[in-house]
């Protein structure tokens, strides 16, 4: 029996295990939306802006490990997806973005709402298709999902002309993908594994830096077993947070521009750096000529194009992180490395990133710790971009993968709210906190309406400092406090929430923090807490741009007092 | 770092938009492509692309790896360091008077080029060869006045029976030396 393109698309999505998609309709998508109710297995969440659909699919994918799906109409709908697709591309997030297109006959004629979306997204997609024939649709969808989730994951775009939705074809379920040009490296070269093990066994001061690749590969326990056997301390990148328990004795936190002083000192003095599933982003390396100057480097990554891209390496291992770590674990010797670990602990004493200022001021760092305590460290935390993002990375402690969700490569303000929405939809039983900035949230604030309409119980904490804080911090430190275009006059966020028929509360005093958090979590639906935080607080430590990582600036010592982290068993 | 000429050979899917994907990776890095030639290969549905670019070994290797990641690129090799045969075809329209015609014909003969069109005041010459050969002939013809040149871009093939090794068989090795290791 023949089916329409719209039916074929729905059935193909279901065959890929899709149970939810984030979308926004338009003229060319009408045949699709007309058909969608025939397939109640697919939950469609109507966003308020297509950027929100892409970020929600992104957050959903990061929280669940599954492929996120978003959809937009031709022209402006498709271009509105672009930022979200780029964001997923830079952070290797599996996503399938479906765009409607004008009827085939009109393509190339500047038809109403016609835009060359595959051309626009060429450099920010892993692959893309224009489905020009209904008979090919099932195969295209199957390939798109395969490409999006395998190897180094990424977004794949499918552009579908309106009349391909209405044309009919036989639905032939594709049984396998044939992509001779698509190569997925797997195990790692045995000779290189041996060489790596030898270097690790000989190293006096080895250090692991782990990135999002560990999470993507599902290699957290493999990493842990490897690190424990060889007694190698572990630091992470921003997106690697959660891949190694931060309460583990071998964990030394995040490295890089706002990383811990001790992580950055460890990179500076290690004699062997084992880089796992990370890509030597400039925010991690600092000044490249001063990066890990005494270390040999082992780089484990699935993507051969990452090897030697930013930093020359001594032993490249191209392969999936998990099997590589399992093999390495067998090859390395048990070790203790007492003096090296003692050295790191000493640095941890000298540069206690965890300490924050005393006093009555409403400090964002303290709020984040209180959220940590109130959630027993068990929430999914999604952030916007700016100071609040770095404080969330520093002051919430993540012990599990897929629990810290943040825009790393693109640094997209406005990511937080829609991504938190996607995460909550994917993990409805988890508490999801969106820690956002007053600037960031205003870029996608309309998604509050989506939270309400679809009853998605995200808890939102706005760190309302009245500034584009991170930019203000750079103006403070490097532009003589010339605060141009950074002070924000913000709306009353609680009134905004209420206007969207959503509950919210403003917090101005330190002692109101915990009760407000508890209230938010006790509330059944979505909830917004507007924290009026100290306006000119800076994020420390900070490596000034272009500087070597060890030249980090710290919070002046006299201002801080110790804070003991409650250990989670 | 010094730039050198690199010859890349790729087998790509014969589908719309593929060339665009290939070329855009060069554009992003500001490469000026010296020459690019596309045509059918020995495999059905696969086209063969020969690209000649100037760049440092490091950047060209980066682009090669990125190209290798494209789903539509089935194979790609940098054959710069292999022994290979490179050829290009050029059509050259030269001004020719009764006084100069025989001299031009003589030059064409020396280069084993063919005369493909004769008009009252021009001759069109077809020449095949490597870049040096074509350039030498053009230099000689210049004095007569060249009206038009059309060149195909270079195609290249590794010599011997084996051809270029598939990229998977090459050991994965970083080509860049670490300064302070
Ligand atoms: C879409 C976008 N535009 C601009 C920037 C540059 N930028 C980075 S952080 C920042 C300030 C963010 O302000 P806010 O969300 O209030 O967070 P805060 O730093 O105050 O915590 C800006 C403007 C960006 N990252 N993304
Ligand atoms: Mg702010």
Descriptive account of the structure:
- The complex is a heterodimer of chains A (569) and B (181).
- With 569 residues, chain A is of the alpha/beta class.
- Chain A folds into 3 domains: 2-167, Thiamin diphosphate (ThDP)-binding fold, Pyr/PP domains (Rossmann fold, 3-Layer(aba) Sandwich); 190-350, 3-Layer(aba) Sandwich (Rossmann fold), CATH 3.40.50.1220; 364-539, Rossmann fold (3-Layer(aba) Sandwich), CATH 3.40.50.970.
- Chain A has a 6-stranded parallel sheet, sandwiched between helices.
- In chain A, helix 3 packs parallel to helix 4.
- The longest helix of chain A is centred in the first third of the chain and has 15 residues, at 50-64.
- Chain A is globular, with a radius of gyration of 24 Å.
- In chain A, 57% of the residues are buried.
- The model of chain A is unreliable at 563-569 (pLDDT under 50).
- Chain B is an alpha+beta fold and 181 residues long.
- Helix content of chain B is 25%, strand content 38%.
- Chain B is built from 4 helices and 9 strands; from the N terminus they run βαββαββαββαββ.
- Chain B folds into 2 domains: 4-81, ACT domain (Alpha-Beta Plaits), CATH 3.30.70.260; 86-156, ACT-like. Chain A, domain 2 (Alpha-Beta Plaits).
- In chain B, strands 5, 6, 7, 8 and 9 form a 5-stranded antiparallel sheet that branches.
- Chain B has helices at residues 18-28, 57-69, 101-110, 131-142; strands spanning 4-13, 33-40, 46-55, 73-78, 84-95, 114-118, 122-129, 146-151, 155-158.
- The interface between A and B is medium-sized, with 30 and 33 residues.
- Residues 384-388, 411-414, 437-440, 463, 465, 467-471 of chain A line the site of thiamine diphosphate.
- The site of magnesium ion has 8 residues of chain A, from helix 18.
